[in-house]
Amino acid sequence: MSGSSLDGLDIAFVQLEEVRGKWSYELLHGECIPYSDKWLQGLRYAADMHVADFLKLNTAYGRYLGTMVNSFIEKNGLDHQVHFIASHGHTVFHEPENGTTCQIGDGASIAAVAGLPVINDLRAMDVALGGQGAPIVPIGDKLLFGEYDYLLNIGGIANITVRRGEEMLAFDVCPANQILNALAEKEGKTMDEGGSMAARGVLLPDVLDELNSVGYYKLPAPKSLSNEMARDLVFPKLLESDHNVYSLLHTMSVHIAQQVAGAVMQHPPASGPASLLVTGGGAFNTFLAMQLEKALEPLNVKVHKPDAGTVKFKEAIVMALIGALRWREEENVLASVTGASRDSVGGAIWLGA
User: Fold this and answer.
1) If DSSP states are collapsed to H, E and C, what string results for the chain?
2) Cα distance between residue 59 and residue 47, in whole Å
3) φ, ψ dihedrals at 10, nearest 5°
């Protein structure tokens, strides 16, 4: 799994079990491998490449993924224990309104290098059926994390899943870590560790009002943000601002919390107190977590943070589940989430041996 924040390649070795329709998981090993400057540049600007260079990047990234999986298997002594690789790849283009999405990382190349079956291209079938192709994590929210009313992942983009009985609703909320990281880079840091820089800033009401006025937030679900769309929403307003970085980080953190609260208000709990599970890199941002709790407290929604492994690797864990469902030829993408014409079995299979 590689997310929009480009913090690295997440690899998780997951054991899944299904008993009479009830799924459970165990995260046995997990690692985030930081990207080199070469890969950062390639992935960040892939959508702007000429076709030939883009295709070369796709196959090279697939071989890189296969090589990293081989190293992970060797490092953790997992020879002959891996049944298949479920690879999300990295999203470089996403225009579901035009029936197109692309996550690079050529499946044939991964399979050839790793010598294992590979399941990838997980979003394409849903988009072909008229869906957003995103979020696809809610199938995991439904089958693995069923005790929560809301499930929030704060990665490069913040997305939320809302449980309505057996039906799931999910959508991208707003830009998150990718803009926080970009602001931190202006101070020579890769991220605002723990939100310490944001905590030193002050709220900028005019900037906050401008951020909150973005038209995307008024759209009904299903809806999703590409990396480019997310950047266009907030990057110019913040990166070109004359205000100091600390206050911009502070204000953006408040903005994220307010937009999450707004998403909850649009889909309030049926009755009584509700619970929200927060995962992704943003869950480790103490200042952002405080703002989130503050924004959700009036809505009677309590924030829960799971163990560190689940916080870091929840999306990779769900990719494993999506792969397992694909292997069993069972539905793994929910139309109630994406707006597709029907639920679907997503993913292409490459036999590496």
Assistant:
1) CECCCCCCEEEEEEEEEEECCEEEEEEEEEEEECCCHHHHHHHHCHHHCCHHHHHHHHHHHHHHHHHHHHHHHHHCCCCCCCCCEECCCEEEEEEHHHCEEEEECCHHHHHHHHCCCEEECCCHHHHHCCCCCCCCCHHHHHHHCCCCCEEEEECCEEEEEEEECCEEEEEEEEECHHHHHHHHHCCCCCCCHHHHHHHCCCCCHHHHHHHHCCHHHHCCCCCCCCHHHHHHHHHHHHHCCCCCHHHHHHHHHHHHHHHHHHHHHHCCCCCCCEEEEEECHHHHCHHHHHHHHHHHHHHCEEEECCCHHHHHHHHHHHHHHHHHHHHCCCCCECHHHHCCCCCECCCEEECCC
2) 15
3) -90, 125
**pLDDT above 80 for 290:** yes
What local confidence, expressed as pLDDT, does residue 1 receive? 92
**pLDDT > 90? residue 326:** yes
pTM for the model stands at 0.87
- Mean per-residue pLDDT, 122-138: 94
**Spatial separation of the C-alpha atoms in residues 290 and 307, rounded to whole Å:** 18
- Between CA 117 and CA 109 the distance in angstroms is 11
pLDDT band at 167 (very low <50, low <70, confident <90, very high): confident
Query: Confidence band (pLDDT; 50, 70, 90) for 226?
Result: confident
Per-residue CA distances from 133 to 32, 87, 144, 324, 333 (Å): 25, 15, 20, 18, 8
Identify the bridge partners of residue 276 per DSSP, sorted by sequence position.
150, 303
**Residue 271 pLDDT > 80:** no
| Contacting residues for 331 by C-beta, under 8 A, at least 6 apart | 139, 325, 343, 344, 345
- How confident is residue 41, by pLDDT bands cut at 50, 70 and 90? very high
Copy the structure tokens of residue 187: 């101070």
- Strand 301-304 relative to strand 274-279, pairing: parallel
